[in-house]
Amino acid sequence: MVDGLRWLVALEFYPTLPKGYVVPAKAEKAAGESSLVCQRMVIGGVRVDHEGGPWADCQPVDGAHDSSQSGGAGLWGLRDKGTAGSRLFVANVQAGVAYGMVNLSDGSRLKATATTVPGTSYRAFAVAITTGKTITSVDTYNTSHRRLTHDTSWR
Questions:
Q1: HSE, side-chain direction, 13 A CA sphere, residue 109
Q2: In whole angstroms, what separates CA 60 from the centre of its chain?
Q3: What is the mean pLDDT of the chain?
Q4: Could you tell me the pLDDT band of residue 27, with boundaries at 50, 70 and 90?
């Protein structure tokens, strides 16, 4: 729950491009990209980026193990492009990351375990950020609790 609303982040993998999916003109499909990975985010029953259509939160990929999808992160919400209100922070991480720790401006910390889409190498962790709080840094850790990364670009 975040600000009294249920939230959800789900990763979906489609081994072949689903019927009805059209590669956006601005994201011209590269050679080998015949699969799709989607990051579905929901806050209070409303899908983030629902205005963009059913495939707005999806990216063409080259099969179940396309390494170009790891390392990205983002902050999304239903208002003001994720800069206000309840928001979701989602990080797409590499295999060695066991969990992430999101540090907030009020000193609190949010821990999230990285999960993998079965049969693929697509991994992510997600946390919900309440209204009025901001991220000061994001750290990732391995299974031995050794810090792997420290990112302060979210200030």
A1: 9
A2: 15
A3: 92
A4: low
Strand 109-113's sheet: what is its strand order? 109-113, 99-104, 135-141, 147-151
What are 100's two structure tokens?
């992430």
- Enumerate the β-bridge partners of residue 126: 90
**Is the pTM here over 0.90, yes or no?**
yes
The length of the chain in residues reads: 155
pLDDT of res. 111: 98
- Give the Cα separation of 2 and 138 in Å (integer): 19
Tell me which DSSP letter residue 18 carries: P
Neighbour-count burial of 80, counting CB atoms closer than 10 A to its CB (0-12 exposed, 13-18 middle, 19+ buried): exposed
Alpha carbon separation from 122 to 37, 64, 112, 114, 115 (Å, rounded): 8, 8, 16, 10, 8
